[in-house]
Design a protein that fits this description.
Strand order of the largest sheet of chain B: 4-3-2-1-5-8-10-11-12-13
Shape of chain A: globular
Distance between the termini of chain A: 50 Å
Strand content of chain B: 15-25%
Number of helices of chain A: 6
Distance between the termini of chain B: 12 Å
Oligomer: heterodimer
Number of strands of chain A: 11
Largest interface: A-B, 56 and 55 residues
Number of helices of chain B: 5
Radius of gyration of chain B: 17 Å
Largest sheet of chain A: 8 strands, mixed
Order of helices and strands of chain B: HEHEEEHEEEHEEEEEHE
Helix content of chain A: 10-25%
Strand content of chain A: 25-35%
Chain lengths: 231, 218
């Protein structure tokens, strides 16, 4: 039950052109930055990326956009980068915007083995166009399908060789639900430990959902909006 | 007439002891600075935190600790951290008592538009559609008129909608208004120095004025 791979490059070795990937993180927080760098090195193209955001020009998914690896983004909030906007306006990049809770819950549904969920988010808006609506107890809900991703790539704080994961602070965000949702799930961690070193009561993602794990080094962890107060 | 801080101060008076509150980006974020003394609230940030604290002191920023606006923040004692699905689970299940958010337009039946201007770069709805679809208590913080001087309180929204029949109360630089279930903006309070006439002129939707309208106390 050893899921350890030597590097990000080995972890993503069989990701191919045209695949659908989930990438954890919120903004630049809790981003699988080592795997993103490896995907850029490998140069796989025509990817569909499910991720809450699309990074900034020189960090996160922005690096993949710059190399034109992405055919389609499925996100809730984008456009913090110039290159993204250029590709979108020129028609090189396709974007599907969906409500953030819908995005999270469609991941969750995949991890829970449920084909679809019902949510009120988007009722009466263009998000509802072409979707099945069901009324429960007098209120309308949209049927939204579970995601189907070839790979989920997540970032955790600690993990053990069996794939059990623990996240730190708000870097948790989409990572646990995406970890559950990939056909193959890759986890990169800041600290890889032996079985028994993590308290089973404190595991956020049980190792059964994780197929490959490796320890990344020298995380940049860039801050998108540095806000402080004076002492 | 109120400035942005004034709008935030007036909205802060709507927060009750024991509330869990979600604050949107912009004026709503400022509300946190004016929560009255003795009122105990927990701020929810939809990226997965209950118990958001103030910005960190310089040099103490933690890249793993941000709010839904991607700003570095602190975490207060008694906080809880969770994933994005659970975060919207508690929103959908109406556990969050109050949602305060900005808007481009609100209609007299409580529809809200705040995510998309056709022809302009669309950044996305983020968590706004989830919040307005489920929250029972939504206060909108916004300017009464847009930069072109046109009313943002309309009979019907012209921009793509974020949600329908959901806004309960609006606080602008001119007034506090309720959105009535049967439709219409009911004027509750005037901003200091603002006349009912000025509010009438700035409101394109159906405005309901009953009796004397008091000036707001901030």
């Amino acid at each position: 039950m050893n899921k350890v791979v030597s590097s990000a490059d080995e972890a993503i070795r069989d990701i191919e052109d045209g695949m659908t990937l989930m990438l954890g993180g919120f903004g630049l927080c809790g981003l699988p930055e080592k795997c993103i760098a490896a995907l850029v090195r490998k140069g796989v193209k025509e990817l569909t990326c499910i991720s809450n955001n699309a990074g900034v020009d020189d960090f996160g998914i922005g690096l993949m956009l710059k190399q034109r690896l992405v055919k389609k983004m499925i996100s809730s909030y984008v456009g913090e980068n110039v290159e993204f906007e250029r590709q979108l306006l020129s028609g090189e990049l396709e974007v599907e915007l969906i409500p953030q809770g819908t995005l999270a819950t469609r991941c969750m549904a995949a991890g829970y083995g449920m084909p679809a969920i019902f949510t009120p988010a988007g009722i009466g808006t263009e998000v509802a166009e072409g979707k099945e609506i069901r009324n429960f107890n007098g209120k309308d809900y949209l049927m939204e399908m579970a995601f189907d991703a070839d790979f989920a790539i997540v970032k955790a704080w600690k993990g053990d060789t069996m794939g059990n994961l623990v996240y730190r602070s708000t870097a948790r965000n989409f990572n646990p639900v995406m970890a559950m949702a990939g056909k193959v799930t890759i986890a990169e961690v800041e600290e890889l430990v032996e079985p028994g070193e993590l308290d089973p009561d404190h595991i956020h993602t049980p190792g059964i959902y994780v197929h490959r794990i490796f320890q990344g080094h020298d995380y940049e962890k860039r801050i998108e909006q540095r806000t402080v107060r004076k002492k | 007439m109120l400035d942005k801080e004034g709008i935030a101060k007036r909205i802060a008076k709507e927060i009750k002891d024991g509330y869990y509150v979600n604050l949107g980006i912009g004026i709503p974020t400022l509300v946190a600075n004016y929560i009255p003394e003795g009122i105990d609230v927990v701020l929810q940030s939809e990226n997965g935190l209950l118990g958001m604290g103030p910005f960190p002191f310089e040099g103490e920023e933690d890249p793993d600790t941000i709010n839904a606006g991607k700003q570095t923040i602190t975490i207060l004692p008694g906080s809880a951290i969770f994933d994005s699905a659970l975060s919207f689970g508690m929103i959908r299940a109406k556990k969050v008592n109050l949602t305060i958010l900005g808007a481009m337009e609100v209609s007299e039946n409580g529809d809200i538009a705040n995510w998309k201007i056709p022809g302009k770069m669309v950044k996305g709805m983020g968590g706004a559609m989830d919040l307005v679809a489920s929250a029972e208590n939504i206060i909108v913080a916004m300017q009464h008129v847009n930069k072109a001087g046109e009313s943002k309180l309309l009979p019907k929204c012209s921009l793509p909608l974020t949600g329908v029949n959901c806004v309960k109360k609006i606080v602008t630089e001119l007034a506090v208004l309720d959105v009535l279930p049967e439709g219409g903006f009911r004027l509750l309070e005037r901003a200091p120095g603002v006349s009912v006439e000025e509010i009438k002129n700035a409101t394109a939707g159906k405005l309901i004025i009953e009796g004397e309208i008091p000036e707001m106390v901030i």
